[in-house]
Amino acid sequence: MGIKEDGILEELDEQRSQTAPGLLSNQEKDRLIERAFLGLYRWYVARSQATRNWNPDLDIDWRNLRTDHSEKMNRILEGFFAVEQYVPDYVLTLLKVIRRSHGRSHFHIRWGSEEEKHADLWENALIFSRFRTPQWIEDYKHTLREKAWELPWDNPLHMIFYTVIQERATQVNYLNTGLIAQGKSEEPDFANDVDPVLAQASQIIAIDEAAHYNFFLEGARLFLYYYPARSLEALQDVIQYFAMPAGDLIPNYDRFAEIVARAGIYGPREHLKDVIDIALKNLGVQGRAALRRGINRIREVPTMEGGMRETAIFDLLDVDGVEKKVQKLFGRIRDYEKQVGFDEIDPTIFVPAR
Ligand SMILES: [Fe+2]
Ligand SMILES: [Fe+2]
């Protein structure tokens, strides 16, 4: 599942910069991507500290969590706990791959510090629901951590798209669980799971996941904008082979996956409609089928016909729309830098890719 070795798409991204005078070198593109990641990361930390500085123990009224949730809801909470339990692996593995990027690697540490709170929040939910004893939870953690999560792709480009899809999927999971806890689900199995404390817990985490999704989305757009051919192919790979993290490590994961799917929280339908379709729309990429067909077209057009390949890219990617979003990101970074005073010394400046 790694990057294709034949280099056609890399060649194409390079041709774009060689054939048209005034276009950017790869070195310059890499510099712009890194500057944007760094600026976005610094903006993100400030915002995270100002607006999402919650505590998993103190900010939720755990004593009032219901202790009579349905068996299915309890299994769902246990599944969320298990997935978030691998946060040390999520941080460690990707950090090694992106460590050369200041913006991406420092963001990843911050991201990990937010995900670590999610693991602790779901552990509290298990403890206070009385579904599991503290001893059971301790043993379970031990079992989970006997195995280690590994990266689905070992390169930064595929992983930016993987994290876009994964964060959106996680957000959908928590939002829909929150709807059940608010009494907004029509599933009869969950009629007795209305619980304001669980609703608040789900909501708090869903907001974090939305912030994560947005960071990765902005990052993914940078790659799509400056390296469209190889980025579109990486995106197609990720969509084709996507699986939620740790599904192969958690005991009885299939049972959990079946419960969340039947509950209307997250199943194949939600994955396509609420995750992939939304992510593609946000990325400015044509739908799933068009992307699959389009990648083949980009690859099949003869090398001499660079222009035709360009056309294939334009058919797949709303380049104008992506450019506007990238420009907007640089604008946000500029405003942040003005607030600090960086703008007077070394401002981050947008340079168009074409
Ligand atoms: Fe999380
Ligand atoms: Fe997240």
What does this structure look like?
The structure is a single chain. The longest helix is centred in the middle third of the chain and has 31 residues, at 196-226. Residues 1-5 have low confidence and may be disordered. The chain is built from 14 helices and no strands. It is mainly α. It starts with 7 loop residues before the first helix and ends in a 14-residue tail after the last helix. It binds fe (ii) ion (FE2) (2 copies). Residues 115, 167, 170, 209, 212 line the site of one fe (ii) ion.
Record keyword descriptors for this entry.
single chain, mainly alpha, Ribonucleotide Reductase, subunit A, binds fe (ii) ion
Topology of this structure?
Layout: H1 8-19, H2 26-51, H3 71-84, H4 87-98, H5 102-128, H6 134-145, H7 156-181, H8 196-226, H9 228-241, H10 253-262, H11 268-283, H12 288-300, H13 306-316, H14 319-340
Residues 84, 115, 118, 170, 209 line the site of one fe (ii) ion.
Report Rg.
22 Å
CATH A-level architecture: Orthogonal Bundle
Please state the oligomeric state of the protein chains shown: single chain
Shape: globular
Which CATH top level class fits?
Mainly Alpha
Unreliable stretches (pLDDT < 50, length at least 5) are: 1-5
Tally of helical segments: 14
Question: Bound small molecules, which ones?
Answer: fe (ii) ion
Beta-strand percentage range: under 5%
Helix % is 55-70%
Look up the CATH topology.
Ribonucleotide Reductase, subunit A
* SS class: mainly alpha
Termini distance? 30 Å
* Mean of all residue-level pLDDT scores: 93
Biggest β-sheet description: none
Q: In the CATH hierarchy, what is the superfamily?
A: Ribonucleotide Reductase, subunit A
Number of E-state strands: 0
Query: Secondary-structure element sequence?
Result: HHHHHHHHHHHHHH
